[in-house]
Amino acid sequence: MAHNQFKHLAMGDIAKKAGVCMATVSRTLNNPDRVSEKTRNLVMKVVEDMGYIPNRLAASLRQGRSRNIAIMLPDITNPYFSPIVRTIEQISLARGYSVILKDTQDDPALERSFAEMVKTRQVDGIITNSQRIPFDVDLTLPLHEQLPPIVNASEFCDLDGIPKVGVDNVAIGKDAAEHLLGFGHRRIAVITGTSHILSSQQREKGFRAALLQANVSFDEKLLYQGDYSCESGVAGVRAIMQLKERPTAFFCFGDQIAIGALHALRELGYKVPEDISVIGVDGIALSQYCAPPLTTVAQPLTQIGEYCATLLIDLIEGKQPEKLVHILPHQLLIRASTGPAPK
Amino acid sequence: MAHNQFKHLAMGDIAKKAGVCMATVSRTLNNPDRVSEKTRNLVMKVVEDMGYIPNRLAASLRQGRSRNIAIMLPDITNPYFSPIVRTIEQISLARGYSVILKDTQDDPALERSFAEMVKTRQVDGIITNSQRIPFDVDLTLPLHEQLPPIVNASEFCDLDGIPKVGVDNVAIGKDAAEHLLGFGHRRIAVITGTSHILSSQQREKGFRAALLQANVSFDEKLLYQGDYSCESGVAGVRAIMQLKERPTAFFCFGDQIAIGALHALRELGYKVPEDISVIGVDGIALSQYCAPPLTTVAQPLTQIGEYCATLLIDLIEGKQPEKLVHILPHQLLIRASTGPAPK
DNA sequence: TGCATAACGGAAAACGATTTCCACAAAAGT
DNA sequence: ACTTTTGTGGAAATCGTTTTCCGTTATGCA
Fold this sequence. Notes:
The structure is a homodimer. By secondary structure, chain A is of the alpha/beta class.
């Protein structure tokens, strides 16, 4: 009713005009090499002249696939995801897929409802940052026979057999800790990510392991449960700096946390890194513009996106990927927010 | 071929199992009130038990609409867009639409190709930040008869009759300038947004008007063409601070520019706001965590998203909106990056 | 000249829901 | 008891492609 002003040509109209049959038009559009050059040019010309654009819904219905993929994120405002999403878009486009982006706000119900888009045939597969797999699975049966094409990005669910792309968060926690230990820090505070999130737990694990290995004990009062937001960085610093025995360094499990922490430390009058060092994780673009520029353990965000998209589309198209799990290398970016521990 | 492991029930299967006809199943699912409670419960139970989920592609094909909308952005990594996109998603979801997000990288060809998704019936409408309308229009005919549902967000094309949601950028330029003038600044540098973008041109216009009105002349050497990126903020400051006659304030046409500018000023050893004031535009979430917290002219980002989504969906559904153009109020957030001009 | 191959036409099934048309029954109203 | 509603069944058209199944003609090659 609404917008009939756009008369939609059907393939039959083109066929009639060009004096060929529909099959030929379809072949010309989808398998150009199966049509003689002469007919191809003829059909193409008519298509151009009349401005025909095939209805992809019809094609999708017939072919049983939509050539769309979905990305589920807990929070698209987190700049961590931007480069990942952008890369996924680029690769998908190159391979003929469109991307549907979803902000699930970490809500299981929303995750499941979005996941239904696979069942409704609106998308052919899903890239998800959630460690909850939004499909019912029977653990006694092989997973890949029950799940639609799905790739776990950055955050991993604990099921084996689910394709995953991300980093080694235990190692990240260790590397960050060792960087601070190397500067002589012994009282290191931690502002974690969202507590139920695996990446946060693993970074904590790596952190503790590094301390243990260096024979440094950890004061549990120096641990603040954050949630990967700037706000939790602010709150964490405020809480911890009230302690009698203050830390000389903060290990923030995300760059956004670190940005908030830097802000709060500034407010309280501390100098970074002279009084207190701060290290983050993620390597978001803005981290280099912090005051001071943030030392951080950078993730290969573009690469994560690249692997996710490639993996998912391979799965969709039935190409068996050689590897289902990709753990990509991280990199410690030493900038100005960390320095020697004060005496 | 790829994933037949998911046997897809069709509506006929449900009808048979429930002992009713397909029309009844369809009615139950789409117009529950046109079916007796008894049959409704029966059908619903079968639907639940068998886990039936209707194929939306088929429905879309038949109904001639996909219940998808597209958002075209030049750069999804710009945190300016995040709250807008998130709000659009929320409203769309509530009204039964899915959102397809596109990063066009300001490329006209990409914009056009994405816009074709309307013609291929993959989306019912578009929200675009580009001032290029990616459809051919005949200016002698009424626009609304030629264009599919489309809404211009934040950046406006120069055609009348296109639905638009945004702010008054001339006023924003004026307000920012007057704030600095009020602090006694007379040499104010400007780092603009992308030069061909209307919002940047208008902010400049407002800025110049305010100076003129205050009887302050503008030194053209204090104008640096940026592109809304952090990098251009850095570059702008470096270029302008090499001048013999330096400014006492920077008006950055975007918060990202301002973040880069703050960074570069810090590198050069200037104190903000004691030596130099900096004001931004946009009011992105991170602006409050800058060092010092950024004075900025904030846009009502959530509201922009809200109006865009509502407007577009109303257009799609044939409801004639009362207003096609919404200019929403901005707000000067005075924080710590601006202060009195040094003597 | 003969024959394999390629190119294309014609017609129709298929994808899976929506929607219409008509008939017919049961429930509700007068 | 008679007329309206209301609810439902049965069957089929429809959306616009893709794809198959032949059959036919043109082309190329030996």
